[in-house]
């Protein structure tokens, strides 16, 4: 499912226009992104939790040259599915 198909599904389920569904989806995604940027967790009960994970600095190898390189520590967005979502998939 891509974004436009998701908007169509939201519009049909909520009985609103596609334009309103698109604005609602965009607003929800911006809210999640801004919350994660602040370092907060976003928990949607029954769906799951979005959170920021941290990767430690490590050494790696350049696949082209084979030389060792240092990889910086980084933060990355992560998602942990809730029980209801897991049950719906299985």
Structural summary, described in words:
With 90 residues, the chain is α+β, with helices and mostly antiparallel strands. The chain has 3 helices and 5 strands, in the order ααβββββα. The strands form 2 sheets. It has a 3-stranded antiparallel β-sheet with strand order 1-2-5. Strands 3-4 form a two-stranded antiparallel ribbon. A hairpin with a 3-residue loop joins β1 and β2. α1 crosses α2. The chain is elongated and about 55 Å long.
Task: Name the average pLDDT.
Answer: 96
Strand content: 25-35%
- The helix count comes to 3
Specify the helix fraction band. Answer: 40-55%
**What is the CA-atom radius of gyration, in angstroms?**
19 Å
Pfam family, one: Bac_DNA_binding
GO molecular function, one term: identical protein binding
Function: Histone-like DNA-binding protein which is capable of wrapping DNA to stabilize it, and thus to prevent its denaturation under extreme environmental conditions.
Family: Belongs to the bacterial histone-like protein family.
């Amino acid at each position: 499912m891509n974004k436009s198909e998701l908007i169509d599904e939201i519009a049909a389920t909520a009985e609103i226009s596609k334009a309103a569904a698109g604005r609602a989806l965009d607003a929800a995604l911006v809210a999640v992104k801004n919350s994660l940027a602040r370092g907060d967790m976003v928990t949607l009960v029954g769906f799951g939790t979005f959170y920021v994970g941290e990767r430690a600095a490590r050494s790696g190898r350049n696949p082209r040259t084979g030389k060792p390189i240092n990889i910086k520590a980084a933060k990355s967005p992560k998602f942990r599915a809730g029980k209801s979502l897991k049950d719906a998939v299985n």
